[in-house]
């Protein structure tokens, strides 16, 4: 018995020693064989610091593993540690099972050049090897309990280019078993740059490619979009982040086969020319999804909300801001679409959204709450002689219970119009037919002077008075329109003609004399019929009114002249209007100032307070154009002095003059300036414009005070600090307030004005005039 124990002990010791020797020998041997035959069997160079292999337990560990790109010294994937547990016993039953596979701190790179990936060679090699094995006998292969810890993975697209990565990647999976088609994965990672995180669960059936997904994103930075935009846009900047809590099932073989529920929100969206200049932005777009299932024609949302959207559309001499960015008629996007070798994530997302939404109106849809709040839609037109700018701000759109099963869905649209006015639209639509709706709209208190950039360009005459109101109602059934449009313009009036070589000349004052009705009001009904694709506006009412004005209006000429004279008297008593870029007073203004000075002499206790209202934006634009044309004029004529005659010549040069514009283009160093205003600023400098503007303000003050100083009553005239405004009449002005009492002549003028407002034909428009009266400034 003692000898048997001794023999077993010796045998065990020898076996242990042999095992240790085998382990100690096989580990470096494994490292040697892998590094020697790597390119033969894998097609790539593989290196490691050291290897540990235990053939008895099936445990394998490679330290500092590196796999290189094919025929390159660039690393394809590396890991601080690679560990695997292989079931040795199951090898004898033709079953290859890795019970655990762990990658510690892997670093991988997927690169693409057109249709070629840096792992194409591996796919081809191992897929062909798998085919040859399958012809012999089925292979039972399983990988269980896959873990990736603290990974970092890069995606690089050489053609665009794209360089994006994710970090702190953690993946856990129950793996793939030879007798199962399903893989389940739990994952989490952070974007390589920017904020946020993403985590979730993903399950896929490898046979039919059906999937199930539950994912949560928090403040996830979407900076990868910026890189793909470079392939579509000539320039531009993008930023946004994403919040989501989505549960979905679907199939990779059918894009419409998706069923999703949850929340999706895009935050702090900014897209535009630069980081500081947006073309489109919003604070938050939020979708709360009850059920989204395009395959079953179901679109059910609890709420859709858009907070603080901003959209700016600009029209230039050539193209607009969108076409300047994406090419004429979207040529950049078309060229990317036409290249099958290019993958662009932005286009793919757009195409996917298009697929998901294409059957919306033919489906069962429901939106419990829809709201757009604090919107700002801005339109700038630089194609005319001077900038035209208007914005819908603040904009609110709201609708409750938009449901395909309801008979009607109602929505309301309300907004302010900057600089003046407001608009309201009420829409009632049949959810079953987009061509069946009722619409009522009302635009109020629009100043006619707002449209001076167009009236100057096409007629040479600016307007300095007038209020526009438009309202109407459309009833549309099956796409057929029956509607009324009502246009009212109260007190339109032109001022002195502006002359330059580019402005067209149309006798606008003469035209107004024909189209205005008695009481200096334009009032027309314009019916609309036809269908939505080819609407017809009926102008019969306008024609009859024109004929009536020709024959009837002369009878009321004395009345209209009396109204005009009294309104002019009131206007000059309350305001002094300044011509653009001028400090000169007209003769009637000088006469009025003298009367005010005399009034102060006759009334020692009286005083005057002046509120300068400067249209700084427009004044500076006029100064900018003049200074740029002046510099151009002196340069091309090789002159060092500038006379009054030269000033008149420069005034008549159009800011759109082709020779002038060509000269500017040759003297600025960037192609990113699209407007004549931007080019002039680059050519002249903003400091010159500010200096000239401040000088103009001082000269106007001196001109106004001249007669008060001459009569030594200037101490009773207080001129306050100027305010930068957008005046209702389109011109800078001095608003004058009297202390203690008004002059008798002014009081009488007001009384006469009130009497005339009660008379026919002005009585009809008394209320409108009262609402729109802004003391004629």
* Beta-strand content bin: 35-45%
Broad structural category: alpha+beta
Q: Regions with pLDDT < 50 over 5+ consecutive residues?
A: 555-573, 752-766, 772-777
Q: Please bin the fraction of helical residues.
A: 25-40%
Number of H- or I-type helical stretches: 19
Q: How widely separated are the two ends?
A: 124 Å
Quick description:
The chain has 777 residues and is α+β, with helices and mostly antiparallel strands.
Provide key terms for this protein.
single chain; 777 residues; alpha+beta; 27-stranded mixed sheet; 5-stranded mixed sheet; 19 helices; 32 strands; elongated; disordered C terminus
Textual characterization of the structure:
The protein is of the alpha+beta class and 777 residues long. Among the domains are: 1-180, no CATH class; 559-772, no CATH class. It has 19 helices and 32 strands. It has a 27-stranded mixed β-sheet that branches. A hairpin with a 2-residue loop joins strand 13 (237-251) and strand 14. The longest helix is centred in the first third of the chain and has 40 residues, at 2-41. The N and C termini lie far apart (124 Å). The model is unreliable at 555-573, 752-766 and 772-777 (pLDDT under 50).
Which helices and strands, and how do they pair?
Elements: H1 2-41, E1 46-47, E2 50-54, E3 59-68, E4 75-86, H2 88-91, E5 95-104, E6 107-113, E7 116-117, H3 120-136, E8 140-157, E9 162-176, E10 182-191, E11 197-205, E12 210-221, H4 224-232, E13 237-251, E14 254-272, E15 278-293, E16 298-307, E17 310-315, H5 321-326, H6 331-338, H7 345-357, E18 364-381, E19 388-403, E20 409-418, E21 422-429, E22 437-447, H8 452-459, E23 463-477, E24 480-494, H9 508-515, E25 521-525, E26 528-531, E27 534-537, H10 540-552, H11 557-574, E28 575-577, H12 587-602, E29 607-614, H13 616-636, H14 644-652, H15 658-666, H16 676-684, H17 686-710, E30 717-719, E31 723-724, E32 733-739, H18 744-757, H19 766-772
Parallel strand pairs: 5-8, 6-8, 16-18, 17-18, 29-30, 29-31
Antiparallel strand pairs: 1-3, 2-3, 3-4, 4-5, 4-6, 6-7, 8-9, 9-10, 10-11, 11-12, 12-13, 13-14, 14-15, 15-16, 15-17, 18-19, 19-20, 20-21, 21-22, 22-23, 23-24, 24-25, 24-26, 26-27, 28-32, 29-32
């Amino acid at each position: 018995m003692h000898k048997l124990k001794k023999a077993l002990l010796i045998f065990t010791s020898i076996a242990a020693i042999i095992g240790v020797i085998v382990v100690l020998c096989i580990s470096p041997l494994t490292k040697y064989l892998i590094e020697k035959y790597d390119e033969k069997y894998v097609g790539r160079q593989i290196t490691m610091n050291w290897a540990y292999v235990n053939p008895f337990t099936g445990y394998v560990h490679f330290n500092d593993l590196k796999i290189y790109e094919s025929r390159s010294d660039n690393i394809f994937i590396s890991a601080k540690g690679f560990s695997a547990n292989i079931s040795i016993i199951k090898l004898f039953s033709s079953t290859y099972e890795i019970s655990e596979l762990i990658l510690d701190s892997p670093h991988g790179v997927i690169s693409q050049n057109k249709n070629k990936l840096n792992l194409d060679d591996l796919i081809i090699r191992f897929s062909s090897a798998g085919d040859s094995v399958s012809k012999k006998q089925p292979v039972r292969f399983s990988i269980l309990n896959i873990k990736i810890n603290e990974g970092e993975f890069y995606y690089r697209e050489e053609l665009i280019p794209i360089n994006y990565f994710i970090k702190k990647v953690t993946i856990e999976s129950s793996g793939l078993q030879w007798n199962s088609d399903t893989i389940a994965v739990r994952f989490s990672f952070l974007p390589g740059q920017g904020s946020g995180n993403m985590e979730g669960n993903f399950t896929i059936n490898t046979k039919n490619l059906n999937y199930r997904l539950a994912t949560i994103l928090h403040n996830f930075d979407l900076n990868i979009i910026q890189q793909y935009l470079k392939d579509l846009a000539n320039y531009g900047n993008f930023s946004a982040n994403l919040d989501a809590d989505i549960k979905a099932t679907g199939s990779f073989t059918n894009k419409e086969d998706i069923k999703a529920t949850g929340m999706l929100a895009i935050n702090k969206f900014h897209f535009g020319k630069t980081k500081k200049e947006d073309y489109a932005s919003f604070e938050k777009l939020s979708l709360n999804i009850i059920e989204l299932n395009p395959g079953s024609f179901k679109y059910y949302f609890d709420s859709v909300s858009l907070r603080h959207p901003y959209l700016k559309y600009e029209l230039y001499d050539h193209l607009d801001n969108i076409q300047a960015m994406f090419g004429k008629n979207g040529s950049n996007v078309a060229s990317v679409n036409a290249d099958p070798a290019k993958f662009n994530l932005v286009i793919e997302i757009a195409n996917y959204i298009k697929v998901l939404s294409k059957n919306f109106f033919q489906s069962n849809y429901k939106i419990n709450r829809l709201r757009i709040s604090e919107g700002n839609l801005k339109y700038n037109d630089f194609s005319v002689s001077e900038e035209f700018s208007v914005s819908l701000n603040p904009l609110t759109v709201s609708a409750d219970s938009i449901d395909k099963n309801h008979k009607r869905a109602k929505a309301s649209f309300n907004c302010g119009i900057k600089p003046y006015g407001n608009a309201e639209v009420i829409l009632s639509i049949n959810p079953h037919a987009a061509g069946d709706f009722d619409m009522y709209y009302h635009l109020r208190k629009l100043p006619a002077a707002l449209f001076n950039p167009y009236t100057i360009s096409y007629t040479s005459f600016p307007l300095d008075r007038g209020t526009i109101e438009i309202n109407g109602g459309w009833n549309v059934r099956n796409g057929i329109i029956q509607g009324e449009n009502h246009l009212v313009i109260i007190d339109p009036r032109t001022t002195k003609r502006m002359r330059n070589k580019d402005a067209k000349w149309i006798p606008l004052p003469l035209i107004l004399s024909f189209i205005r009705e008695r009481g200096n009001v334009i009032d027309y009904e314009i019916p609309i019929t036809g269908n939505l694709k080819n609407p017809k506006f009926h102008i019969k009412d306008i024609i009859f009114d024109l004929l009536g004005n020709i024959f009837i209006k002369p009878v009321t000429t004395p009345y209209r002249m009396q109204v005009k004279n009294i309104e002019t008297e009131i206007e000059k008593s309350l305001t002094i209007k300044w011509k653009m870029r001028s400090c000169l007073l007209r003769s009637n203004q000088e006469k009025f100032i003298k009367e005010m000075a005399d009034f102060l002499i006759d009334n020692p206790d009286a005083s005057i307070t002046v509120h300068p209202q400067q249209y700084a934006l427009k004044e500076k634009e006029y100064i900018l154009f003049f200074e740029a044309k002046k510099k151009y004029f002196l340069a091309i004529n090789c002159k060092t002095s500038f006379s009054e005659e030269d000033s008149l010549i420069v005034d008549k040069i159009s800011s759109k003059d082709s020779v002038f514009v060509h000269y500017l283009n040759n003297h600025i160093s960037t192609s990113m300036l699209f407007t004549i205003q931007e080019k002039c600023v680059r050519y002249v400098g903003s400091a010159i414009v500010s200096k000239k503007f401040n000088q103009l303000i001082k000269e106007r003050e001196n001109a106004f005070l001249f007669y008060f100083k001459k009569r030594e009553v200037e101490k009773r005239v207080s001129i306050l600090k100027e305010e930068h405004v957008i005046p209702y009449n389109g011109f800078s002005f001095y608003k004058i307030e009297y202390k203690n009492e008004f002059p008798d002549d002014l009081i009488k003028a007001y009384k006469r004005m009130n009497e005339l407002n009660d008379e026919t034909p002005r009585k009809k428009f008394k209320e409108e005039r009262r609402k729109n009266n802004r003391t004629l400034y």
